[in-house]
TrEMBL record:
One of its GO terms (biological process) is glucose metabolic process. This is Glucose-6-phosphate 1-dehydrogenase. It catalyses: D-glucose 6-phosphate + NADP(+) = 6-phospho-D-glucono-1,5-lactone + NADPH + H(+). The lineage of its organism: Bacteria, Bacillati, Bacillota, Bacilli, Bacillales. The gene is zwf. Pathway: Carbohydrate degradation; pentose phosphate pathway; D-ribulose 5-phosphate from D-glucose 6-phosphate (oxidative stage): step 1/3. Residues 191-487 form the Glucose-6-phosphate dehydrogenase C-terminal domain. Catalyzes the oxidation of glucose 6-phosphate to 6-phosphogluconolactone. One of its GO terms (molecular function) is glucose-6-phosphate dehydrogenase activity. The keyword NADP applies. Belongs to the glucose-6-phosphate dehydrogenase family. SUPFAM superfamilies: Glyceraldehyde-3-phosphate dehydrogenase-like, C-terminal domain, NAD(P)-binding Rossmann-fold domains. Transmembrane segments: none annotated.
Length: 490
């Protein structure tokens, strides 16, 4: 029962992520006794706030985000401190160092420090280099850098950012967040695969017809139009969350459950991804934008009418794609992915479709036996189901489908706060398994850049889909031409 102790320095303490995810997650860890009471949080922002202003914000955020008992809330908030910082002023860092040293001795923290970058990415590099030059990373304990997405905008900018932060932190001190890796059922993928004798022998191109990963959202871009216009669904969701799920589904069993072994298997999957060459992008990737639609009787506007969105924007809010993995295990098995905003449901699900029996004895007996499916429910419900065929009761040999369903109820329904809780804890105990290694980021950008470059050169207009639907017809066609269809995710 390790109880890590650390100062947590949050750059972007006045921002949305801190309020919605980081403060509630830290509070959970504190309340449950998972982190030592010897901790302090230093919030950094541009505004001139007092410690008290920050504490009020933290208190409010916890009351908003967490239902139920708030025991120990005052003790928790009292260990928060605020420092206004001009990210390009050396003096600011000297003052911050003095504050951190004082807190270190007040709470007997032993020099352990987490620097959490939860703000506009253009300053990540500058901050990291000052942390080093002004010796904030020079302590008796460990120092770690947690870095939020976006990790670059393409390979080139990601490389620049990586070089900058590597000047101040070693690779093993860098924790690149992908919050999907903190989700309970994403972490369960490995256990389902490697702890069950019934799946792993079938987990290959002999027995699996295709894999489908859907991560759909009901919300539109809300007030993030500015960011989203430069990103789009491909960079916002596919480069990180969806590709991470692909690697976990496709990787070979690691030799051991260590960070290095797991990462090295995931990296091999990314290396085996068949690159999208420009002329093929249309055959395997679909992009689209949401138009207007109706949700629960209420009309919503299309993407082009959203705040901070160009009226002729070609930013995609939906992506569907077909990925091929060129290795012995997966040759010929398509991995279909789709993600989008303003879709019918908030849902993340993975469907593994198994190949049909080599010879079908039940072809003419009632319904054609359906495909066997393994469905991994990531969110909002958490669990798995297995679709099998059984005998239709009372008939001679007709089949009917049987759904074996297991559901584990997430404490918060949608599991995101818990994901951050887990990842923050992992970082404090020095476990980087569920963070993205630079090689993963590098390879995933390489794959994605080819798609975005092809799209940039494409003058055709974007298909649109109605808000509240499951995306455009083109996404259906992507599977139909291979003889498959998207399995319903509801
Ligand atoms: C973030 C994206 O990484 O993931 C958002 O930037 C998206 O656009 C979010 O809404 C989805 O996360 P979750 O946990 O709600 O599925």
């Amino acid at each position: 029962n390790e109880q890590p102790k650390s100062i947590i320095v949050i750059f972007g303490a006045t921002g949305d992520l801190a309020k919605r995810k980081l403060y509630p997650s830290l509070f959970h860890l504190f309340q449950k006794g998972h982190i030592s009471e010897q901790f302090a949080v230093v919030g950094i922002g541009r505004r001139e706030w007092s410690d008290e202003t920050l504490r009020t914000q933290v208190r409010d955020s916890i009351k908003n985000e967490i239902e139920g008992e708030h025991t120990k809330l005052e003790e928790f908030c009292n260990q928060f401190y605020y420092k206004a910082l001009n990210v390009t002023s050396k003096q600011s860092y000297t003052e911050l160092k003095t504050l951190l040293d004082q807190l270190d001795s007040r709470y007997h923290i032993g020099g352990n420090r987490v620097f959490y970058m939860a703000m506009a990415p253009e300053f990540f590099g500058t901050i990291a280099s000052y942390l080093k030059s002004e010796q904030l990373t020079d302590t008796e304990g460990w120092t770690r850098l947690v870095i939020e997405k976006p990790f670059g905008h393409d390979l080139e900018s990601a490389e620049t950012l990586n070089t900058e932060i590597r000047e101040a932190f070693r690779e093993d001190e860098i924790y690149r967040i992908d919050h999907y890796l903190g989700k309970e059922m994403v972490q369960n993928i490995q256990v389902i695969r490697f702890a069950n004798a019934v799946f792993e022998p079938l987990w290959n191109n002999q027995h699996i017809a295709n894999v489908q990963i859907t991560s759909s959202e009901r919300l539109g871009v809300e007030d993030r139009g500015g960011y989203y216009e430069n990103s789009g669904a491909l960079r916002d969701m596919v480069q990180n969350h969806l590709l991470q799920m692909v690697t976990l589904l496709a990787m070979d069993p690691p030799l051991r459950l260590t960070t290095e072994e797991i990462r090295s298997e995931k990296i091999k999957v990314l290396r085996a991804l068949r690159p999208i060459v420009e002329q093929k992008v249309k055959d395997s990737f679909v992009r689209a934008q949401y138009g207007q639609g109706v949700y629960d009787g209420e009309k919503v506007q299309g993407y082009l009418k959203e705040k901070n969105v160009a009226p002729d924007s070609k930013t995609e809010t939906f992506v569907a794609g077909k990925l091929l993995i060129d290795n012995y295990r997966w040759a010929g098995v398509p991995f279909y992915i789709r993600t989008g905003k303003r879709m019918a449901a908030k849902s993340t699900k993975i469907v593994i479709e198994f190949k049909p029996q080599p010879h079908n004895l039940y072809l003419n007996n009632g319904d054609d036996p359906g495909a066997n499916l393994l469905v991994i429910h990531i969110q909002p419900d958490e669990g798995m189901s297995l679709m099998l065929n059984g005998k239709k009761i009372g008939t001679t040999g007709d089949t009917s489908s049987v759904n074996l369903h297991y559901s584990q109820h997430g404490i918060d329904g949608i599991n995101t706060p818990e994901a951050y809780e887990r990842l923050l804890f992992d970082c404090m105990i020095g476990d980087a398994t569920n963070f993205a290694h630079w090689d993963e980021v590098n390879l995933s950008w390489t794959y994605i850049d080819a798609i975005s470059e092809a799209w940039e050169g494409d003058k055709d207009s974007l298909p649109s889909y109605s808000s509240g639907s499951m995306g455009p017809k083109e996404a259906e066609d992507l599977l139909l031409k291979d003889g498959f269809h998207w399995w319903p995710i509801e």
